[in-house]
Amino acid sequence: MTPPDTIRRYPKGSLDVDFYRAQITARRGWAYREARTLRAAFGLVLTTLLTLCVVTALALASRGESTKAVAGAEPHFAWVFGHQRLR
Q1: In a domain, 45, yes or no
Q2: Would you say residue 6 lies in a domain?
Q3: Contact present, 16 and 9 (Cβ < 8 Å)
Q4: Could you tell me which of 49, 50, 47, 75 has the C-alpha nearest to residue 61?
Q5: Count of domains forming the chain
Q6: What are the phi and psi torsion angles at 15 (to 5°)?
Q7: Contact residues for 78 (Cβ-Cβ < 8 A; gap 6+)
Q8: Using only C-alpha atoms, what is the Rg of the chain?
Q9: What is the mean pLDDT of residues 23-38?
Q10: Are the C-beta atoms of 8 and 20 separated by less than 8 Å?
Q11: Would you say residue 23 lies in a domain?
Q12: Which residues contact 60 (CB under 8 A, 6 or more apart)?
């Protein structure tokens, strides 16, 4: 463990609490700004991914590919509902 830097004191020997309080306030403000920036970036990434998923789903649905992987194949989720292909 490294020894602490020189502690700021008033001439009478008491600690300069205002100096340390100002440092902590500045660091806390930086942390709040950083958290806000990260939250905004995370929201932007989530919005972009959601938009891509919706656009992809709409594009596949408009081409009729959302329920068939191969021509004539049943949807992969048909067994969940107990549906069987009608012939």
Answers
A1: yes
A2: no
A3: yes
A4: 75
A5: 1
A6: -70, 145
A7: 84, 85
A8: 30
A9: 94
A10: yes
A11: yes
A12: 66
pTM: 0.48
The size of the chain, in residues, is 87
Please write the tens of the pLDDT for every residue from 35-77.
999 999 999 999 999 999 988 888 877 776 555 455 555 555 5
In contact, 8 and 16? CB cutoff 8 Å? yes
| Within a domain: 87 | no
Q: 4-8, 53-57, 80-84 — which is least confidently predicted?
A: 80-84
Which amino acid is residue 8, in one-letter code? R
Query: 74 is in which domain, residue-wise?
Result: 17-81
Burial code (b: 16+ CB inside 10 Å, e: under 16) for 71-84 equals eeeeeeeeeeeeee
3 falls in which pLDDT band (50, 70, 90)?
Answer: low
Q: How much is the pLDDT for 84?
A: 57
Residue 87 scores a pLDDT above 60: no
Tell me how far apart the alpha carbons of residues 7 and 56 are, in angstroms, rounded to a whole number: 61
